[in-house]
Every structure is written in C-alpha cells, then in structure tokens.
Design a protein that fits this description.
The structure is a single chain. Helices cover about 45% and strands about 15% of the residues. By secondary structure, it is of the alpha/beta class. It has a 7-stranded mixed beta sheet, sandwiched between helices. The protein has a two-stranded antiparallel ribbon with strand order 6-7. The radius of gyration is 19 Å and the shape is globular.
Length: about 300
C-alpha cells in the first residue's frame, strides 16, 4: 500500500481559504451531469479562451510539435496544435466525468481493445507495469481502464489538501488503491503480487534517476530510468496502453498493446530508448490529444542550450 494516509474530508476545508477550491469542484460536479456534446463544446471554448490568456502555453505546444516533427509541413503541425488547444480545454470536463460519472455512464462511452493480453498475464500470475502517456483524457482513461481491469495507480498528492481529497477520491473509484509516486517499495510489492500498476514515464522529471534517450526527432530527451528499475527488480511485464477519443462520435477506446517482450533488462539507457519507442506509438494513436503543453525537453545535457 502507499506510504501516505488516505485523504479524508476535514472541517478545516470549510475555511474561506478553500472556498474557491470547493466552488471549482462543485462546478465540475454540476457540469459533469450535462449532456456530453454540450460539455465537448464548452471544453473547446474553454481551451481557446485559455490559450489566448496564457499565450506561453500555446508557444510551448507549437515548439514541442516543431521539435518532434521537424519534417512535417507547418500547416499540418498548426492543425494538430489547434485541435490540441480544444482538447486541452476539454481535459477539465473529462476530469469531472472521471471523478463523478456513475459507472454505467462511463461504460456507455467506452469500448475496449486488447485486454486479452492482460488476461494471459493474469493466468500466469504475472504483474504488469502499464505504460501510460499523459494524454489529455488520462483521468478518464484511468477510470475507464479500472472498470474493466482494476489495478493500482501511481499518485502525486496535490499541494492543496482540499483539492487532494477530491482528486484522490475520484481516482480511487475504479482502482484497488493508490501508491505515492515516491514509494518504490510499494510499487514493487504490487507488481510482485500480480497487480497492474499504472505508470507514465513520458514526461521530463528532471535529472534524478534519468538518462537521455531519443524521443521522436529529439535525440536527447531526459527520460526516467524508473521503468528499468521497476522492471528489473520485479520481473513484471511491461504493457503499453492508450485512451483515444473519436471526436465525431464522442466514444473513447482504451487500447492495450502487446507486452514489450524485447525490453532490455539491466541496461537503463537502452531501456529508456526502447520505452520511448513505445511511448511514440501510443502518442501517435491521437497526437492531437497528447499533453504537448508540458515542456517535455526542458532538461538538457550539461552545457547544451535550452530548446525553448
């Protein structure tokens, strides 16, 4: 289990300092009950408004796409960026869906592919590190995945304890339990006991426990070696998955891909490059739905200039 105590609602959360948080969560709850197509339109509008107010994020999206796809025509990159802005706004609404929708409503909007790979691992009693990417619908993806195959989430507590309570409660709805992202022993224990542990190694987490490996056209992307550590110490399978939304129908597909059977054990550098290839494949399932607003390439090798 996780090291941190399960968040509980406290009377202190009624203090005025948390009123904005309570208002935000209340609005998310109420909006979640609107018809999906209305939420979709509201999300698009919110994304377009936000990007006008926070222009720096729009520049980050454009720069990331330029770095990753330098040979792609600029018009095509711009089209992905515009769709990405819409999806960024919709992410808040999808978070409300993930936290507050009843199971039956989630199932109505989701279909599943590739879960036979997990069924085969379950028969072997083998745990799996589920390699996720930070798609903008990741919250809803975790909820939907758990309804089909409940597992263990890796979790970073929010600095706002009031918001953290609602975030934890929302994320654990279809999970068995959550583990603090710093609790490596907890993750290993879960994997050795045959659990599915959701893990997203696609972001730039800084120099600690990292190496530089290719990601798309960027030859030196700071990449966590945590994947290698967990796989080598537990002997688990590594299974990529992705959550993709069909814009026309509003239907989501949770796709589980075959296990990474050629994972290079006991070689963190080769493992980082190998996992990044799997991450690329997941991102390309719907590149416009990926979290391009994250400064993915902010950490550079010593002496190399910033890419932003």
């Amino acid at each position: 289990m996780s090291k941190f105590a399960t968040p509980t609602f406290k009377i202190a959360f009624l203090h005025p300092r948390y009123w904005l948080t309570l208002l935000l969560v209340g609005v998310m709850y109420l909006i979640s009950w609107l018809p999906y197509f209305i939420q979709f339109r509201l999300g698009q509008g919110l994304g377009r408004l936000a990007i006008k107010l926070i222009k720096k994020r729009g520049k980050t999206i454009a720069r990331n796409l330029e770095l990753c796809f330098p040979d792609m025509p600029k018009e095509e990159r711009d089209a992905i960026a515009r769709k990405n802005v819409d999806n960024t706004g919709l992410a808040m609404f999808e978070t409300g869906m993930a936290w507050f929708w009843p199971d039956i409503r989630v199932k109505r909007h989701v279909r599943y592919e590739g879960f036979e790979h997990l069924e085969a691992l379950e028969k072997q009693g083998k745990g799996a590190l589920m390699i996720a990417v930070h798609s903008l619908n990741l919250e809803l993806g975790g909820r939907a995945f758990g309804l089909k195959a409940p597992g263990v989430g890796v979790y970073r507590p929010n600095n706002n304890p009031c918001f953290d309570y609602f975030q934890f409660k929302g994320r654990v709805r279809s999970n068995k339990y959550l583990i603090d992202r710093k609790d490596v022993k907890g993750m290993l224990h879960a994997l050795r006991n045959g659990e599915w542990v959701w893990y997203a190694p696609d972001h730039d987490y800084g120099r600690r426990r990292s190496t530089f490996a290719p990601l798309f056209a960027v030859e030196k992307a700071c990449t966590t070696t945590g994947t290698s550590l967990l796989a080598d110490a537990s002997g688990c399978a590594l299974v990529p998955f992705a959550m993709v939304r069909d814009t026309d129908s509003g239907q989501y597909t949770v796709k589980v891909f075959p296990p990474l059977d050629a994972f290079p054990h006991n070689d963190p550098d080769a493992a980082a490059a190998y996992v990044n290839k799997a991450i690329e494949r997941s991102i390309m399932e719907a590149p416009e739905q990926y979290m391009w607003l994250h400064r993915r390439f902010k950490t550079r090798p010593e002496g190399e200039p910033s890419l932003y």
